[in-house]
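User: Please go through the entry that follows and flag anything odd:
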Amino acid sequence: MPALAFAVTLFAAMFFATTAFADSVSVNFENPPYLLGTVNGQDGWSMTGPYDVAVNSSLGTAGFGAQSLRISNAVTSGSFGDWAFAKPLTNAAGESGVGAENRYEAQFDIASAVPGSEQTDLQVSVSPDDGNGSRMSYLRFEDDADGMHVIFFDVTNPGPLPTVSSFNGTDIATLNRSVPHTIKFVMDFVDGPGNDVVEIWIDGVLVHTGTSWEDYYRFDPEQTGNGNVLFAIDTLIFQARSGAGTAPGTLGNGFLFDNVELSSSTPPPPPPPPARNVNSTRISINVMNRGSIDNTTQADSHTGANTALGSVGGLGGSGGNVTSGVGGNENNGGASAGDGGDGGAGGASGFVGTGNASADAVSENDLNGTDAEVDVGCGCGDINGLTVELDVDNDARGNVIGNLTQARGRTGDNHALGSTGGNGGNGGVVDSGSGNENNGGASAGTGGTGGTSDDGGTVVTGNANSTSGSFNLLNTTFLRVRL
């Protein structure tokens, strides 16, 4: 590309990346339009309180022109609305829905009205403000023996409402009081709590980064009367609060302020990084997997070895006896003994009913998994050389899978036996006594019939199910390269 064309392209890129200020105000306190005396009502400034604040001679301060704004803490108060407010911006800055822009910048020069010596207990503060005393940041300038101290305060409050805020003071610089200094606030308002960014620059150098007072307004009970809402920032407030001390001896002196510049804007998003050529790239991926899987899984269920027996029948009754008397002449002819009773029948045989027998055995293993991805798809330029090496070492001697998975279900070895019939009874007995007997025609009774036996028992078994499974995944390697 020709050198001239490159220069034009670079200038265009720098131009479009620069923040475009939506609104700005610049004040140097020179006449016209500013006149010596009170600043109230001049060119959009306001100051209605009885304070030692005025447009004053610059006292020959370098870079301040003929006139400057002078302020001391000879008279102080704890109020806000009657202090000195700078000419405001038209487009205020704040979070979305609060301000028209989301960046606020305020810059000014400060110098001691008595540069050769300390002004005892002199202190003045400057804060970005909404014009009513709702400050969103804070710097206090103190004249001490070793120079001009710059104190920064931000606020932290984690919420919720009502949570008391923590005001955090930090001494960020000690400046030479014999020369003027340039101070700058840069505030970026980010939607949501606890994330605004405040930068403090002194003489062109970033000396501190903190946050705003946003969460004081969101969560602190002091702001309940204001509805705990946020305020848009469009000006600066210059004041000497009594809480930081009053110094009557500073009357007519104090600090000089000049070259006040305010601006609001919405910076564009940063441009994407330029494409870069990949001239030589070497990517090495080494994967070494070692492991062992050894499972023994068993399941066993059964309902077998059941026995049901029938009962045993009762015995038959004995037949009746015929007995002749002892020693007399008896005639037992025609006598009959009664029959024996039948034997009892055997009871019903037993019943065996078994449920289902199920056995499940499962093994699932995943020992080593490797997923390697190389992605060079980042909008890079030309890729002139790229080497991708993949070394996967899955040593079979070091990776072992051993499974023993068993499942068994059974309902066998069941017995149901028939019952046993009863025994028949004994027959009757004819017994003659001693002497002359006549037992002709006598008969003994018959024995009873034996009891009947019942049918054999019934065995009903359920289903016997057996399931076994084994799933093993020892080494898995995936490689994806995207360019």
Remarks:
- The two ends are 27 Å apart (CA to CA).
